[in-house]
Automatic annotation (TrEMBL):
Membrane topology: Multi-pass membrane protein
UniProt KW keywords: Cell membrane, Membrane, Signal, Transmembrane, Transmembrane helix
GO cellular component, one term: plasma membrane
Annotated signal sequence range: 1-25
Lineage: Bacteria, Pseudomonadati, Pseudomonadota, Alphaproteobacteria, Rhodospirillales
Main subcellular localisation: membrane
Domain spans labelled Single Cache: 23-106
Protein name: Single Cache domain-containing protein
Organism: Thalassobaculum fulvum
Pfam families per record: sCache_2
Length: 151
């Protein structure tokens, strides 16, 4: 009987751990969700203009979800919105390289319509440098992007 109690307790502990574990799959957004948010942000920018859209991308909850956030880079390489790190707004990132040496901002800037860019970046949820896949949409003189961290 005591063995059954320990088994039941162990099973309950595992269930609780899995339910609250930050490593759970539900904590990570997918690349499909990143693409959908990027398209939503690009449509919002087109409809509302920069004066309304850029502040919304920096702080509005509709443009943040788990580890997803919107970033916007202009044709000179300057960050004009960044939903995870306001300190990057106003910084020119054109020459920024990821840990592998990839000039990923330049790759984003080169997108003419929409597309994917793969690179490594700090995950705001885990604080670790992780592989990231961002979907980027060109809207006039800026690119709007949202990326998902991938394993």
């Amino acid at each position: 009987m005591l063995t059954n109690v320990f088994r039941g307790l162990a099973a309950a502990m595992v269930a609780v751990f899995l339910a609250v574990s930050p490593a759970g799959a539900a904590e990570r957004a997918s690349v499909d969700e990143a693409k959908a948010m990027a398209e939503k942000a690009a449509a919002y920018l087109k409809a509302e203009g920069k004066d309304k859209a850029l502040p919304a991308f920096n702080g509005d909850a509709q443009f943040k979800d788990r580890d997803l956030y919107v970033f916007v880079i202009d044709d000179a390489g300057a960050t004009v919105a960044h939903g995870a790190n306001a300190n990057l707004v106003g910084k020119n990132l054109k020459e920024l390289r990821d840990p592998t040496g990839k000039l990923f901002v330049q790759e984003m800037m080169a997108i003419k319509d929409s597309g994917w860019v793969d690179y490594s970046w700090q995950n705001p949820t885990t604080k670790a440098i992780e592989p990231k896949r961002s979907y980027v949409v060109r809207v006039a003189d800026v690119v709007v992007g949202v990326g998902a961290y991938v394993k």
